[in-house]
Design brief:
Structural class: alpha+beta
Strand content: 5-15%
Number of strands: 4
Strand order of the largest sheet: 2-1-3-4
Helix content: 55-70%
Shape: globular
Largest sheet: 4 strands, mixed
């Protein structure tokens, strides 16, 4: 069984889902298929917008993220630099995927955004995070400016929209789409049922 995981580092809900999914998939011997996408591009494609653009919803949303972080027992803090322009970060994810180090890259980028509240809108800060994570920051900086990486991010984001993904985190298990980090119980049920069927 595969769990296809669409995410963007600028999404706190993606971060919370990411803190739980690897262990959940390991528990049921499922494959976690990472799909980094650009949330802003996805919003534009499907014609929706961020909850952060609605003040009352933004307040509720971050309170809810804090409650879930406490439930999961993971570090979380509101990032004062939110909304994060994750374009260079997501291009970097595609570079990391090609280099076979996406899980390590996920770890440093999610932590920088939502555990350490770093200013990931600042290219200097991004470089510092990469270097601290033992990445070749210059190589990443060069790669994300290539047409190949730019076009790949456009393509994977469009592919997500074509699969009816309208936001992140989205997890697809079998033919069923689950939106939101608060849907992990449904994913676990699907994995458990699949394991029982075997």
């Amino acid at each position: 069984m595969h769990v296809t995981f669409y995410y963007d580092y600028g999404s706190p809900a993606s971060y919370l889902a990411w803190t739980q999914l690897p262990a959940l998939c390991e528990r049921y011997d499922a494959v976690l298929d990472y799909r980094p996408v650009l949330l802003g591009g996805l919003f534009k494609t499907v014609g929706t917008r961020s909850p952060a653009e609605i003040d009352s919803k933004k307040t509720w949303f971050f309170d809810d993220m804090q409650r879930y972080a406490e439930l999961y027992g993971v570090p979380f803090q509101y990032n004062p630099y939110f909304i994060i322009n994750a374009l260079p970060l997501m291009r970097g994810a595609l570079w990391a995927e090609t280099e076979g180090c996406l899980e390590s890259y996920n770890r440093i980028m999610f932590a920088a955004c939502w555990a350490d509240a770093r200013n990931m809108n600042d290219p200097v800060e991004i470089m510092a995070v990469l270097k601290a994570g033992d990445f070749n920051a210059d190589a990443v900086a060069a790669a994300i400016q290539t047409d190949e990486i730019k076009q790949r991010l456009i393509a994977v984001t469009q592919d997500a929209a074509d699969r009816d993904v309208f936001g992140v985190p989205t997890m697809i298990v079998g033919d069923t789409l689950h939106f939101g980090q608060d849907r992990l119980d449904w994913i676990e049920e699907a994995l458990a049922n699949d394991q029982t069927a075997k």
